[in-house]
Amino acid sequence: MTFFVQDLSFGYGSDPVFSGVGFELPPGCVCGVLGVNGAGKSTLLKCLIRILTPSCGEVHLNGRDLRRMPRRQLSRHVAYVPQSSGAQLLSVFDTVLLGRKPYITWAPSRKDLAMVEKILVTMHLDHLALRPAGSLSGGELQKVTIARALAQEPELLLMDEPTSSLDLKNQMAVMDRMSEVVASQGLTAVVSMHDLNLAFRHADYFLLLNNGTMEAFCSRDEVTPEMIRKVYGLPVALERVRGHTVVVPLDSHQATVAMGPSLVKAG
């Protein structure tokens, strides 16, 4: 049971955004989509969820062609967390309940309500259930948005820069919880990210976009400083600090004297 993308391309008229993107992911993993601003990270996610229509390519989830799946059925298999969720006027409980829309025909069932209660506990939001979502902090609100996506009971979770407006503590809280849920529920998550260090901490796989093409798709342990240099135009070293890989930007002198093809140091 896998998520499979082959030869996916998209452009606006004669202006290509990306082409030839292909990768395969198993359940229970997180894939970080990385690249400079304008590389097409958000556009790729929107093509995967069919907000945008790719010019060519295949997208399959557990053997099902997502391009031809009816919208309501698609929402039962794939959930999307955008960069901004807009104004939040409902309570936390009702906001998460919106995620059950693909299953509700007239009124929420007991199963729908029980599912929301369970997810609020999973995301450590149960104590905020009756609070207006708009009154929450940025980190809490982002967890509510993820909880709403989880209420869809998806197999595939797409997240567009979920930590872009959060401070360091809330970045860690959101990504830690997301990683735990993905692993425990056997989901597949594709997450666009700006922070390389956050990606090394939470992503099992890296998809690197560069100048409209896929520079690399590999596991976290296979990422090299040269890959990062090609994508970001900046020499880096990868160092191990307390069991985690940390990206260290190098100045011109450091880049000249750095030895070894991998520039990976144990700390």
Automatic annotation (TrEMBL):
Keyword line: ATP-binding, Nucleotide-binding, Transport
Domain ABC transporter: 3-236
Stored Pfam families: ABC_tran (PF00005)
Top-level taxon of the source organism: Bacteria
GO molecular function annotations of the record: ATP binding; ATP hydrolysis activity
Family: Belongs to the ABC transporter superfamily.
Stated name of the protein: Iron complex transport system ATP-binding protein
